[in-house]
Write a structure and sequence with these properties.
Helix content is 53%, strand content 12%. By secondary structure, the protein is an alpha/beta fold. The chain has one domain: Glucose-6-phosphate isomerase like protein, domain 1 (Rossmann fold). Strands 2-1-3-4-5 form a five-stranded parallel sheet, sandwiched between helices.
């Protein structure tokens, strides 16, 4: 048991060490989000499963606070409205659960953060397509080789792992870094 735990933690540490190579892209993500929030736009976040939890976590940190007491920031997790999700899935198909919300909530200049460990989630890709057609910036978090999400994003951080658990661990670190950088970068009074 101890060997398994030691191996897992060592692999986690190795993946996070490799994630440091994306520092410039993570900073670019934060700048894109900060610029949009400063000009009165919002951040929309989507993903499925564990990525849905990451979307909700990030929106909560920005609406509430991450570290600093500051004004609430306009962040919406598209994963939380069960009535909308189930109605859209029922009427339009699951692939449309996020894109339909983007169509109704987004406006030009908003930022969509798309999270998919595989980079191939149809519902996430559809949201990206809708967001881009509306003049939103699209940034993404993926894993493995980035999947199709590479073709839909203005900027993408690919967690340096093929294992879903380690990809998700990288994603939550990036989410926390973004929250911290956004708080530091905003002219919040």
């Amino acid at each position: 048991m101890q060997q398994f735990i030691d191996r897992y933690i060592a692999q986690h540490q190795s993946v996070l060490t490799d994630l440091a190579a994306y520092a410039g892209q993570i900073e670019q993500f934060a700048r894109r989000c900060t610029t949009a929030l400063d000009r009165g736009n919002k951040l929309l976040i989507c993903g499925n499963g564990g990525s849905a939890a990451d979307a909700q976590h990030m929106a909560a940190e920005l609406i509430g606070r991450f570290v600093s007491d500051r004004r609430a920031l306009a962040a919406i997790a598209l994963t939380t409205d069960t009535s909308a999700l189930t109605a859209i899935a029922n009427d339009y198909g699951y692939e449309s659960v996020f894109s339909r919300q983007v169509a109704g909530l987004a406006r030009e200049g908003d930022v969509l953060l798309a999270i998919s460990t595989s980079g191939n989630s149809a519902s996430v890709l559809a949201a990206c397509d809708t967001a881009r057609s509306m003049g939103c910036e699209v940034i993404g978090l993926s894993g493995r080789d980035g999947g199709e999400l590479k073709e839909y994003c203005d900027a993408l951080v690919i967690a340096p792992s093929d294992e879903t658990a380690h990809i998700q661990e990288c994603h939550i670190v990036v989410v926390h870094l973004l929250c911290a950088l956004i708080e530091q970068g905003l002219g919040l009074a």
